[in-house]
Protein: Cytidine deaminase
Amino acid sequence: MDAADLRLIADKKHDLLEAAQEARKLAYAPYSKFRVGAALLLKWGEIILGANMENASYGGTVCAERTAIAKAMMRSTSLSVDEAASGRKVEAGDIIAVAVASDLEGSCSPCGFCRQVIREFCSVHTRVLMVGRNWSRQSAQSATGTAPSSQQQQQQQQQVEDRQGKEFDEANVECVTLDYLLPMSFGPEDLDKPRHT
Structure:
């Protein structure tokens, strides 16, 4: 996570959280009634949405975080078929933040399965921001008194210090690194380590 990534997250944090809350409205959750929305922030500022999609077989259910990651990673520039609104190809490491929103009053963290899938495509330094239904952009801005001016935003962006996710904490927002959620994780690079046969 470099300084440019941290500045981008600081600049886009409320857009990302709001996107996750909006994505939650797209959830298909007729069985659990537990709606979850996710939003990914890419290195170039684009946000990709996902929502949980349940299935009567239960095992066919896909969580919001995995839906968003699948959408992001399915982009290609090498196919002979054009997909509408496909956008720029996403590579492992291009996702710098993941926001998760649920209908709970407080935050809800990604499940273990999602944590491992996030680990597959993201750095352990990726920020995971979690909010419940009680967060809103308006409440976040009223907690600080008003929406920050563009000059205040520029000053804040220049002063983002890496504090392992805590640099983005605010009322009703919990932010941690993926490494915090999945310590001592197993990732793709582990498959390249020497093995004895």
